[in-house]
Write a structure and sequence with these properties.
Length: 134
Amino acid sequence: MVIPRSILILLLVASVYSLKVSEREVLGSNVKYPIRFAYVDRTPYWYSTNIAIGLGVPGYAPDNEYNYFALAFWTCSSALDMAGIWANALSYFTTAAGFGTTTDEIQQFLRAKYNDAGKFILVSAFGSTAFPTN
């Protein structure tokens, strides 16, 4: 039996649609579509309130369409670059800036800013500095 080409195309489209729907169900309702992903590896600001601009923190950084921010990067030995700022927030944000008085408080404050704006913050692993698969 020969299946007409139009039916094969229809089945393929239906399969892809079904896959996309099941991906969303597996990933859960917290995934926001469309995904607008920003990889943050550098900042011109390295101290106090201005560093929130470099991290893309809503309310500090200019409005943008990104809803996922990946801070670069976590390595086998430590957090570097923007992830290092996140891991050692108290060293970069002054307590006078009002973000918090401990790294944990500052991280909670920043996370709330992202979440309140419907944005998500992630940490990128490895990068070109570490070669975990070698």
